[in-house]
Write a structure and sequence with these properties.
Shape: elongated
Helix content: 25-40%
CATH class of the largest domain: Alpha Beta
Order of helices and strands: HHHHHEEHEHEHEEHHEHEE
Largest sheet: 7 strands, mixed
Distance between the termini: 60 Å
Number of helices: 11
Radius of gyration: 21 Å
Structural class: alpha/beta
Number of strands: 9
Number of domains: 2
């Protein structure tokens, strides 16, 4: 069987199982099998696969058909043009989260941002992307999972930013040693009732997905604890899910004494990032859990 034939067969199987990105995923799994890049793959389409290579590829396709994400099979995921190591201890970085990075970089161009914290860093994709694009900025990255922080450390080493990304174990803002200029958070925002649709085969950690009844439980908790952690005139960037912006903005207007709130849509037109900037010398109101 040639590489071309193997790709064709795999694509059809993925199509038959309603896997949308069948072209990309069949290619990624074959490249992983052969340990070659995309250019090498397409230069060798007529090359015959060995029996061992063909069997390995079939086993990877079967894992994908059984629901395991391609990123976990290959242990790689591209984010913001960079390659990251991932496994089932961390959420797979989504393209939508690149909007958080883009907005953070915009804010850093508009004013001095000397310190940033990435809340719930997972594999470290956001923290590393920011560190590479903001070489003079100190990045903190927190996560409650020790396993996730090990993966984030590996990615920091790969991309050469261990000297500028400080990994901290703890819940949200609790391990942060100082107030920062910018808080970036991609917290769980999937509604509990929708978890089976998002994490059909329970491969991704539910802790990184479950946002409670309306998907905003952890986001509200973060916002209610922000006072004293954000420098005067600083900003907060929050990734949210579809249909959550109105509820969150209403909550934030109660929380923010004086400042601006902006809702930013993604490429599909879905409200994806909420940007909050407090005015200089203003603080967030302190709300209790019963208020949130």
């Amino acid at each position: 069987m040639t590489i071309k034939q193997a790709l064709s067969n795999a694509r059809q199987l993925l199509v038959d199982h309603d896997i949308e990105e069948y072209n990309l995923e069949s290619e990624l799994l074959l490249r992983h099998t052969l340990k070659i890049d995309r250019v090498q793959l397409y230069l060798a389409l007529e090359q015959e696969l060995s029996n061992q290579q063909a069997e390995t590829y079939r086993s990877l396709i079967k894992r994908r058909l059984d629901g395991e994400p391609t990123a976990y099979i290959t242990e790689h995921r591209e984010f913001y043009g960079l390659d990251f190591y991932v496994n089932s201890s961390v959420l797979i970085p989504r393209p939508e989260s690149e909007l958080l990075v883009e907005k953070a970089l915009e804010l850093a161009q508009e004013r001095t941002v000397s310190t940033i914290v990435d809340i719930g860093t997972g594999c470290g994709a956001i923290a590393v992307s920011l560190a590479l694009n903001l070489p003079h900025t100190r990045i903190y990255a927190t996560d409650i999972s020790a396993d996730a922080l090990e993966i984030a450390l590996a990615n920091c080493r790969t991309h050469g930013v261990t000297d500028r990304v400080c990994l901290l174990k703890g819940d949200m803002l609790s391990p942060l040693p100082e107030p920062v200029d910018l808080i970036v958070a991609n917290l769980p925002y999937v509604r509990k009732a929708e978890l089976p649709e998002v994490n059909t085969h329970n491969f991704e950690p539910s802790l990184a997905l479950n946002g409670g009844t309306d998907g905003l439980d952890k986001i509200r908790r973060l916002c209610s604890r922000i006072d004293g952690k954000l420098r005067s005139g600083g900003s907060l960037l929050l990734e949210i899910g579809q249909g959550q912006s109105i509820t969150l903005v209403s909550f934030l207007r109660r929380l923010l004494r004086a400042g601006s709130i902006e809702v930013i849509p993604d490429l599909s037109g879905i409200d994806r990032v909420v940007s909050v900037t407090q005015f200089t010398n203003q603080k967030f109101n302190c709300l209790t859990l019963k208020d949130v």
